[in-house]
Amino acid sequence: MTETTEPTGWRQRAKARAQTTGARTFSALSVRNYRLWFVGQGISLSGTWMQTVAQGLLVLELTASGTELGLVTAAQALPVLFLAPWGGIIADRFPKRTTLYLTQAVAGILALVLGGLVATGAIQVWMVYLLACGLGLVKAVDTPTRQSFVLEMVGKETLVNAVSLNSTQVNLARVIGPTVAAALIATVGMAACFLLNGISYFVVIAVLAAMRAGELRSSPLAERTRGQIRDGWRYVRSTPVLRTILLMMALIGTLAYEFTVSLPLFARVAFGQGANAYAAMTALLGLGAVAGGLYAATRAIRAPSRLVWAAACFGATVLLTAAAPTLPLALAALALVGFCSIQFTSLANATLQLEARPEMRGRVMALWTMAFLGSTPIGGPLIGAIGEHVGPRWALALGGLAALAAAAFGATVFGWRASAAPTDARKPAPATAEASD
Q1: Contacts of 1 (CB under 8 A, 6+ apart)
Q2: Residue 239 to residue 260: CA distance in whole angstroms
Q3: How many Cα neighbours within 13 Å face the side chain of 136?
């Protein structure tokens, strides 16, 4: 009797654990508005990665210059660097769904224009610069608004899960987008990548229209006052957790997250490959991040020391990639890079949103946008120049060392171990931080 009941009980317990883990991993998808958003973002992000791959190859085709590629990437990020604080104010002062209608429409039009220019053969490098700059202007407003809109859809109880699923989705799109882009470029040409990306933005507009406004947990809008940008800087500077996370992200974002510049050169120079190898690198990076995002989604605990270890592991895997002697080994290492990077970004993003006061959340996420995306005008050309003149392996290695330096800096504030009990993101935040939510 024992021989028949024990295996059955073991299977039942395993099934129950699997169901519990699955429910915890995808808990944010129980919210209807977030489910709609998740679908729309999946389509749009795949289009974005299609355009990213096509734009990088387009610039190399027009100029054959890694420095030019870095400068185009910088042109797209430069508006984010300088204008994201104003974008954060817009996110704090105006209804976020209304703002997203506008930013998605403008971004879609810019992608369609670029696709039309490529399709007609009229494209020139200066046009790529101009349209990249225009997209950067949109991102300066769209990114902090979109980041802080997630909390309004799901609430603070499942924010960590939602942010982790968002990160997973970004990187799943990193797999799908480049794969589709490589197929399109090989069959119908680059223009299709830009045109389909333009259409994808209007899918997001349809998703926003389908949401139930009454189910959104809108944050109180900030009033118009003088010195709002200065107030945001002062608030972050006086809050050690926010300040440290943003400084870590600035260092990593400037030198490590320049894969759109370093990987095309890595594929072309280090291994003598073209679009297929670059797409494979991007895809493996994304697959690793998908696995990392799903793992992060099951973890409701957010302790600052985890940020330190995530940054350290990220840096170590980037260095491993830079040293890989063959393409298969580089692809395997990039999967590890993706897994480790998502541990850092998802936890850092969620911690910033949960720690920030509601009326300051847009401005805090604007600074996150500056650190993550806006740092590219500095890092993009530098990594591109190093990759072109010194070697792409050295460009990647610099990013790995930057991540290790960020981990060391974080350790001086947070320590390598949690000095206090970890915060459970499923519990309500302190009343001082979320009283008006």
Answers
A1: none
A2: 32
A3: 24
Burial class (CB in 10 A: 0-12, 13-18, 19+), 106: middle
Please, are residues 256 and 403 in contact by the beta-carbon 8 Å criterion? yes
Distance, CA of 433 to CA of 355 (rounded, Å): 7
Contact, 46 vs 169, CB < 8 A? no
Return the CATH superfamily for domain 27-216+228-429. MFS general substrate transporter like domains (1.20.1250.20)
- pLDDT tens string 5-57: 555 565 555 444 544 445 567 777 888 888 999 999 889 999 998 998 888 88
CA gap 253, 261 in Å, rounded: 13
What backbone phi and psi angles, to 5 degrees, belong to 417? -120, 155
For residues 314 and 94, what is the distance between their CA atoms, to the nearest angstrom?
36
Residues 129, 72 contacting (CB under 8 angstroms): yes
Contacts of 434 (CB under 8 A, 6+ apart): 156, 354, 358, 428
CA atoms within 13 A on the CB side of 310: 27
| Of 256, 258, 265, 219, nearest in space to 364 by CA | 219
Q: Give the model confidence (pLDDT) of 324-360 as tens digits.
A: 999 999 999 999 999 998 888 888 887 887 778 877 8
Q: Which residues contact 251 (CB under 8 A, 6 or more apart)?
A: 402, 403, 405, 406, 409
Do 418 and 304 touch, CB atoms closer than 8 A? Answer: yes
Contact predicate 52/177, CB 8 Å: yes
Alpha-carbon gap, residue 204 to 44, rounded angstroms: 7
As a whole number of angstroms, the distance between CA 265 and CA 344 comes to 25
Residue ranges per structural domain of the chain = 27-216+228-429
Buried b (16+ CB within 10 A) or exposed e, 166-175: bbbbbbbbbb
Cα distance between residue 169 and residue 44, in whole Å: 10
Task: Assess contact for 308 and 356: CB atoms under 8 A.
Answer: no
Residues paired with residue 302 on neighbouring β-strands, in sequence order: 423
Which residue has 């997001």 as its token pair? 204
Instruction: For residue 416, give the nearest of 301, 311, 289 by alpha carbon.
Output: 311
Name the amino acid, one letter, at 149. F
Identify the H or E element spanning 423. strand 423-424
Contact 108, 202 (CB under 8 A): yes
